[in-house]
Amino acid sequence: MSTVYDCSEPSNRAAGLAAAAGAVRSGRLVVLPTDTVYGIGCDAFDAEAVRSLLDAKGRGPDMPVPVLVGSWTTIDGLVLSVPRQARALIEAFWPGGLSIVLPHAPSLAWDLGQTRGTVMLRMPLHPVALELLRDVGPMAVSSANRTGHAPAASAQEARDQLGDAVPVYLDGGLSGENIASTIVDLTGPDALILREGAVSKKEVDEVLGIEVEVAR
Question: Residue 179 pLDDT more than 90?
């Protein structure tokens, strides 16, 4: 059985966050609101939980799971290094709708899928998500939908698709514009926009001071 917690009511929000934190720490899944679309998440360092997340979505490890963080400084322990371009993007757009791909620290014991030594990181602009992340640490989070279906813009839409595969749903109301994050890849010699979403290419260009190429 799954439980939905209405986070607009203070006591339900506190109970929901406690239940979600307990679920994450015990290797289970949660659905949480973000500033883009609803996400399905788990402990980023629990490989079995990540596999459960992929199973719930109906997809394989060939599509790695991104990681959400609750603060700028968290990424310092997750990646090999934080280049100048990454710092500039973080300062401009975090928390917000920009994801950054960087080489992850080789010492980390996690399995997010076939990442080829990289990790996609984002800090969401949503108070419920941030409170949970600051409590439990980095979470592997993907859009809360079955593969091939539309991303969920509400907790109910997520529950309709994922059902009892997720024990805890945090209802933070309707998501923003239901637009996925923009993804900037900084693993190569030049910045590359893998997906244009909530943050425009023009905004990325202005922050980095260059014309950033878009992946074809």
Answer: no
Domain CATH code at residue 28 = 3.90.870.10
Domain limits for position 103: 3-214
Residue environment code for 125-142, b if the CB has 16+ CB neighbours within 10 A, otherwise e: bbebbbbbbeebbbbbbb
Whether a cis peptide bond, with omega within 30° of 0, leads into 83 is: no
Q: Tell whether the model's pLDDT for residue 176 goes beyond 80.
A: no
Q: Locate tokens 């074809």: which residue?
A: 216
Q: How far is CA 41 from the centre of its chain?
A: 8
What's the pLDDT band for 162 if we cut at 50, 70, 90?
very high
Q: What is the sign, positive or negative, of the torsion defined by CA atoms of 101, 34, 158, 24?
A: positive
- Whether 68 and 42 have beta carbons less than 8 Å apart is answered as no
Domain count, the chain: 1
pTM of the model: 0.94
The beta strands (E) that lie in the chain are given as 3-6, 30-32, 39-43, 67-68, 98-103, 118-122, 139-143, 168-171, 182-185, 192-195, 213-214
pLDDT in tens, 71-96: 999 999 999 999 999 999 999 999 99
- The burial of 33, by beta-carbon neighbours within 10 Å (0-12 exposed, 13-18 middle, 19 or more buried), is given as buried
